[in-house]
Amino acid sequence: MRRTKIISKILFYISRTLAMGYLLMIVYAVVCLLTGWNVQSATSGGAFVNILFPFTNSPFLIIDTAPTYIIFSFLLPLVLYSVFFWLASEVFKVFHQPRLFSSENVVHLRRFYLFNVFIPGAAALLSRPFTVVEKDIWLLVIVHFFLGIFIYFLAAIFTQGLQLQKEQDLFI
Hints:
The radius of gyration is 20 Å and the shape is elongated. The longest helix has 37 residues, at 135-171. By secondary structure, it is mostly helical. The protein contains 4 helices and 3 strands, in the order H-E-E-E-H-H-H. A 3-stranded antiparallel sheet has the order 1-2-3, with helices on one face. The protein starts with a helix and ends with a helix. Strand 1 (39-41) and strand 2 (48-52) form a beta hairpin. The chain crosses the membrane at residues 21-39, 69-92, 112-131, 137-158. It comes from Chitinophaga oryzae. Keywords: Membrane, Transmembrane, Transmembrane helix. This is DUF2975 domain-containing protein.
């Protein structure tokens, strides 16, 4: 179990860092787009803009200027992956807690599987009238769905383990 705790702690920090990185990218991009700071036209017609790395002239993000693209193809995926990695970090945190079967740990697993089962598909369907949802996106939706189902089974095991642990505490 020691190896599991070490691996889960490493994955916790990696996924938490990714969540924070996505969040910072979102905040930076929104500030740049709203203020025009560090934004330059990428094409002569102005259909695309470059968001530059802070205090440089190097492009960081290349974005279509259509509002539907910005909302549904840029911000929505970044927000959802920020949430995904945050919830994943909470799942990894479950495995380096002193008490594995706890109601708090079951809640973290439940949030993660509900997010993965329902949100990617709903986001793709919501985006569909406004932007082209490519085949690769639907494949990601399917991958997230199966990940959610797997974590659902893990949450069910944790729920049963919690119940058995409570029953054992009653007998002691």
